[in-house]
Design a protein that fits this description.
141 residues, alpha+beta, STM4215-like, two-stranded antiparallel sheet, 23% helix
């Protein structure tokens, strides 16, 4: 199995005192489990770009990782997104066996979930979605 930058980001976020003080371990891959309370983070891979040469692949892919900060108010979603940015943007290290060479925030957008439009019995929620580009060394675990 190959190492995953998503795993490294998860470990970085749960070990960040600022992020952990807001969400604890409410950090989920791709989907939120039923019953999860606000606030929380959801991360998912948006894309992966692998470069090649005549000698073969470089084994240093660049992954677009989307991280969504969800909260009950717009201000709380922004506060959580700021905590994520302070933890991740520009971070270079080896985390959970993954060597990160470059991690940078490339875009950020706000959104709002109005549950009445989908017929759900949920409270309204706010999202700040960030896209990080992460270049890492691809290697086996």
């Amino acid at each position: 199995m190959l190492v995953s930058p998503e795993n490294a980001v998860y470990h970085r976020l749960v070990s960040s005192p600022l992020v952990a003080s807001i969400v604890g371990f409410n950090i989920f891959p791709v989907a939120v489990p039923k019953g999860a309370g606000f606030p929380f983070l959801v991360y998912r891979k948006a894309n992966t770009r692998r470069e090649h040469s005549l000698a073969g692949p470089f084994l240093m892919p660049e992954v677009g990782l989307q991280i969504a900060s969800w909260a009950m108010t717009c201000e709380a979603a922004h506060e959580l997104a700021d905590a994520v940015r302070l933890s991740l943007d520009g971070h270079i290290a080896t985390i959970a066996g993954v060597t990160i060479h470059d991690m940078r925030l490339v875009s950020e957008v706000d959104d709002y979930l109005d549950p009445t439009t989908v017929g759900a019995q949920l409270p309204p929620a706010y999202e700040t979605r960030q896209l990080y580009q992460i270049r890492y060394t691809e290697s086996a675990v």
